Amino acid sequence: MIAPTIVPIFTLLFGLAFGSFLNVCIARLPWHRSIVHPPSHCPGCKTPIRSRDNIPLLSYLILRGRCRACRTPISWRYPAVELANALLWLACLLQFGLTLQGVGMAVLCFLLLGLAVMDAETLRLPDAFTLPGIALGLAWTAVTAPTGSRLATVLHAALWSFAATVLLLAIALGYRAVRGRSGLGIGDAKLLAMLAAWLGPASALLILFLGVVMAAIYGFVLLVSRRANATTRIPLGAFLSLAALYAIFAGPDTIHWYLHLFL
């Protein structure tokens, strides 16, 4: 019999390992570079990173955040992403248990964390994450649906995913018609479609609302602090991803609370 403490420990370790892989995706996918070749290397001196210097979180602490060869500072983003992914996976375990739902939500957290950081850093939401994310969401819906209604459930999820895409594209086209410039990227529409496929229409609407509110507050703070102007681009996808992480753990309770106000 597996000791109760072993599962959380292995969850954290696997979360750190996949967080390390996520860092590779974040650094390369927005620029359409391979995640396989070349091997991980220092961005400063291009020296390949040795195995002993590639241990998630621990190597960063041992090296004090610098490359062993040239002493170029290593971005704090690397250990932060590794730790964040590990903690999110632990949260999935604690919330949903060692179940199919727990595994599915851990996969979604992995995707959302990567998309949030990529959009924050590059204002890009790569198809390499959003499109497989939509497919995985529909597949997860099929696997978790009741046996007798799987086809109907998947078609329903696909329909809402398409509707989410159309909604954001309509908003984007309307904004462009009024302002004469782009306000939303198609990547944001694909992200919302992915979220609708995974979490359903109610959670997708909650995520859209929370994401827009957070983005508006962020933009207001930038304007007040004079670090931006009216044309500064806001990474909406990052805020949608953060809102989705909230929805995974507290979305149903929030929706129930809101609906209860009118019942």
Q: What labels describe this entry?
A:
single chain, 263 residues, mainly alpha, 2 domains, 9 helices, 0% strand
Structural features, described:
Plays an essential role in type IV pili and type II pseudopili formation by proteolytically removing the leader sequence from substrate proteins and subsequently monomethylating the alpha-amino group of the newly exposed N-terminal phenylalanine. The chain folds into two domains: 1-98, no CATH class; 99-263, no CATH class. The chain is an all-alpha fold. Helix 1 packs across helix 3. The chain has nine helices and no strands. 69% of the residues lie in helices and 0% in strands.
Order of helices and strands: HHHHHHHHH
Mean pLDDT: 90
Let me know the number of strands. 0
Number of domains: 2
Largest sheet: none
How many helical stretches?
Answer: 9
Structural class: mainly alpha
| Helical fraction | 55-70%
Catalytic activity: Typically cleaves a -Gly-|-Phe- bond to release an N-terminal, basic peptide of 5-8 residues from type IV prepilin, and then N-methylates the new N-terminal amino group, the methyl donor being S-adenosyl-L-methionine
Family: Belongs to the peptidase A24 family.
Function: Plays an essential role in type IV pili and type II pseudopili formation by proteolytically removing the leader sequence from substrate proteins and subsequently monomethylating the alpha-amino group of the newly exposed N-terminal phenylalanine.
EC number: 2.1.1.-, 3.4.23.43
